[in-house]
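Input record (one chain):
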Amino acid sequence: MAAPKPVQDLETAREMTHDRLKIISGNANLRLAQGICEELGCEPAGATVKQFSDHEIWVQIDENVRGGDVFIIQPTCTPADRHLMELLLISDALKRASAKRITAVLPYYGYARQDRKDRSRVPISAKVVASMLERVARVDRILTLDLHAAQIQGFFDIPVDHLFAAPVFIDYFRQRDLDTLIVVSPDAGGVERARAFAKRLEAPLAIIDKRREQPNVAEVMHIIGDVEGRDCLIVDDLIDTAGTLVKATEALLEKGAASVTACATHAVLSGPAIERINASRLKEVVLTDSIPLSPEGEASEKITILSVARLLARAIQSIHEETSVSSLFV
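The corresponding structure, as predicted from the sequence alone:
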């Protein structure tokens, strides 16, 4: 019997044992995906994701992923349906190409605000999306950031790593003078998030209690806490049309606040949001790059963008190496 052939050269040997970590991105946030790859010291895996003239999506994985540990970077932001469909098709292509494990990295989880049946004959859309990712796309794991409703994790029967952008914001605001800072929750539902910020910044907490006294009558905002002479920091998970944010800013300033700054993880910024922010008395709005900003948003002097690439890269590295990611859950 002939002896087995030796490995031809060192390059072949390296190729046989090289790391199977693969980062693939849809079209939702290519800049963030590139930032994650830079933090990990790797190049994005080759993939072609394009749209035909009839708006059908076509996907092809351009390199070998057999046995790979693949992470798909794809926030399901506007247009949510197209980006979700890209994610489903990329995952299916990877499954058919024999990827060993697929993790869907959703820096922004679209449809998260539709997380319960709050009236008759409506769907629980966040659950439908979860079912599609798990049963149709057949992803093995979810990595996401600042879910609008934390209980969405329970919609999955696969592991979900739910990160928070708080450390990124905390590092940014610690560079400021915090003597007059007060953290503000924009509503009762956000108190836990705001309290965590206040604790880490060693600042007091205020809460805005919004009430609609009568149908078709504007909301009345009651401020719980003393904001007079304080620099207010409104903390939220996302900013959509910015209507409530601007009203909250005016309510705080009317109560004697020295200034109002806002921070939120997800820059949804739909409709007249940017115009409202620019015209408001907000000092600054600090957001992350979980969702790509429009050129109009990037041009705004009031908007500051912080990157979550390093945070997500650390989580991806930990998942790939099968080490704990609990240190990131803060």
